[in-house]
Amino acid sequence: MTQPTSTAPITPSFITVDGLTKRFGTTLALDGVDLRLAKGETLAIIGPSAAGKSVLMKCLVGIYGPDSGTIVLDGDDVSKPNADKRPEWASKIGMLFQQNALFDSLTVWENICFRQIELGTMNRSQAKAHAIDLLGHVGLAEESATLSPSDLSGGMQKRVGIARAISSDPAVLLLDNPTAGLDPVLSNHIELMIAKIAEQRGTTVISITNDMQIARHRYQNLMMMHNGKVYWSGPTSRIDDAHNDHLTQMLKGSSHGPITMRAGKRDDGVYA
Question: Which domain of life, per UniProt (predicted)?
C-alpha cells in the first residue's frame, strides 16, 4: 500500500489484489479493485453505503469468489474458494462481522473458541482457558465467559467478536465496522486495542470504518471506495495533499460532491 521512495528498499506486498470484480445479478459490486498491503500494516477502508467495502472483505476471507481478478496472500493465489491454499489461509484469517455474528445458543467462551472446538485443535477445557485469557485482552472480566451473548451490552458483544477474531492468532485480521454504534470513548478504546494487537502480533489489519478521525489517525493506510471502485488509496500521511474530490467529500461528510445517496439493495437482497 505504502509507496516506496527512490532511496528506500521496496517492501513486498503481503496482500495483493489485482482487478477484482464481483457481480450480483446485473449489479457490479466490485469494479476492478486493486490493493497492496505489506505484512503488519494497517488499512482503513472508507466509503458511503453500498460502496462495495463489505463485498471486498468477504472476497478476501473467501465467502465470495470473485468473477475476475486475483487475490494473492503472501505469494499464494487464493482467488477462488476452491484454490489449493484457500483452506490453509482460512485458518490464518480472523474476521469481525459488522453485527458480530455471535451464536446465541453458545456461551461467550464457546463463541470465542468456536473454531478450535469444531476443528478439535483444543479440548473444551483448553478452549475455555484460552477464551478467558482473551477476554482479559479485550477488557472483559472472567465472569463474562459463561454468559450468553444476549446478556451482554452492544460494546461487550463487539469485544467478544474481536476476541473470537484473534483467537487463532491470525496473520490477517478483517474488521467490518468494529466501532459501529458505540460511543466515542468505547470506540477509541477498541481502536487502541486493535492497534496494540497489530503491533504486538505483527498482524496485518484491514478495517472498514465510518469514523473519519479514526481512519485518519489510527491506520497507516486508507482506501476510499464508491460504487465498487477505488477512488483513492495511499498512506494516511498523504491525505491532506490528495486533492481528490471523493476523498475530500467523505472526510468532511459533505452532502455536496461526486458522492450521491444511493438507496436500495443488490439483486441478491444484500446491502454492499
Answer: Bacteria
What kind of fold does domain 11-92+205-258 have according to CATH? Rossmann fold (3.40.50)
How many residues are there in the chain? 272
pLDDT tens, residue order, the chain (272 aa): 444 444 444 567 999 999 999 999 999 999 999 999 999 999 999 999 889 999 999 999 988 999 999 999 999 999 887 888 888 888 889 998 877 789 999 999 999 999 999 989 999 999 999 999 999 888 899 999 999 999 998 888 988 998 999 998 899 999 998 888 778 887 888 888 888 888 888 899 999 998 888 898 889 999 999 999 999 999 999 998 888 888 988 888 888 888 886 554 544 445 44
pTM: 0.85
Q: Is 228 left (phi over 0), alpha (psi -120 to 50) or beta?
A: left
Cell numbers at 137, concatenated: 485482552
